[in-house]
Design a protein that fits this description.
heterodimer; A: 4-stranded antiparallel beta sheet; 0% helix; B: 8-stranded mixed beta sheet; elongated
Amino acid sequence: MKAVKAIIPGTILEILVKKGDKVTHDKPVLILEAMKMNNRIQAEYDGKVKKIYVKVGDRVPKNFVMMEIE
Amino acid sequence: MGENDKTPELIKRRLDAQKGGGDQAIQKQVAMGKLTARERITSLLDNESFHEYDLFVEHDAREFGMDRKILAGDGVVIGTGTMYGSPVCVFAQDFTVAGGSLGLMHARKITKIMDHALKMRVPLIGINDSGGARIQEGVNSLAGYGEIFFRNTQASGVIPQISVILGPCAGGAVYSPALTDFVFVVDKISKMFITGPSVIKTVLGEEITMEELGGARVHSEITGTAHFFANTEAECFEQIKKLCTFIPWNNTQKAKVFPAKPPKKKYNIEKIVPLDPREPYDMKDMLKALVDDSDFLEVQEMWAKNIIIGFGRIDGETVGFVANQPNYLAGVLDVDSSDKAARFIRYCDAFNIPVVTLVDLPGYLPGADQEHAGVIRHGAKILYAYSEATVPKITVIFRKAYGGGYIAMNSRHLNADFVFAWPNAEIAVMGPEGAANIIFRKEIMEADDPDKVRAEKVELYKQKFANPYVAAAKGYVDAVIEPEETRDHLLRALEISENKVAIGPKKKHGIPPF
């Protein structure tokens, strides 16, 4: 599974893509607020957004699958 | 010379030995995308500079039919040559000869060239491509590994030691590279592991490929064993040559000085750091805005990316940089980043390379997994390395420097020589939110509108403490500087530190938190 995981526990501040959007591995797909920083989380894979598992305001633990790319 | 001339015999013997494992074995090597041992050496060294020794060495193993086997050069090529006109010692295992397996004489050749490198105080470059111990030689091959490890350790911090993994490097063989300063790997060619897939399958029943177990990516991204990753052997040799422009030839020398060059104009230092402390940015842009010609050589680029280490020049002289990366994990210190930075600081200190530390971090990463992974023990390494280092140590704080992270990143308190801060720096025991919640807990709890009071107190704390002037008032920061003056300040600080003398108490050696 091409999963976008939380590299650090935090809060979803903004989701920058929607289901079906084309993304590239270096493109930020969401902003995860953690450690006093609005961390831009990259897609890590080239492809299309298959599913988004989080919404703004959600708190996610480390390694939580936030999004799936296909 | 007449009929007694034995030169033709020499030439014939030489040609025979240089064939290594013969045409078929060489073809197999080429088919794997690999060069031969001698081709590798000549690609790395100055043209025509290589002189081979011990070409006619033979093994004297007798058991298991070994007495009938001739192994050219016993599977390893050793010699001397030059890089940029300066002498180096080199060995390259020859996979075409008995799989580059390490027997007693093979090891003796390697230890001979290692002894030579250490005596002559020149770098040692080892090219590894070996199936492992030569089983037929039993404990003699183990002896060989041990004698190599001993020499790696003796030479550590005296001469540069570079390991190039261009094939398998398994079992005991992995520990020689691990004891050296820099390990170079090539995608799909390098394989390093203690026990291979077949043993893992037998003992644990787990199936894993060599690539997944110990390929170049694994060691570059996950384990941190490798320092430089290349896609091809040719790219790998270029990386080694590049590294060699930044480092001195031994621990009594300084790195070669190059003509000074300004950073490239496209890296505008004033535009790199966002004013909002919550906004990330790429610290690599900052490094490129500070170093000569924006030429920064990153070490361990793919591992523990929350800290950046590497070499650049300021006014022609080599500097080692340690910098937090706000773009990855908010630039926190954790187990791996502490380990990575600490070892690099010790490298720079051993080889007379000044260390410049660029600071923007929220602190150490909290969490049970970090605590249980030993963040106390590993985090202590960076404190130890900075405190112990006697080379010039200069720090620039751009934005956040909170708590333990502030202390760890070459603060005045660990004996930094110069500490500079930008006007937007926030040097404090912790972030304003956390601090306000603790200091004003009672007032916030008892307020009619706790959120409003909390916001007021956070603002109050920010005004009072989230700035560089509290630290500057105590002399912890030497100067608050304008961003565009940063390179000039570094340059002046490095100039005045040129003849720095710092001698700690006499001791055999310290006991760092390994």
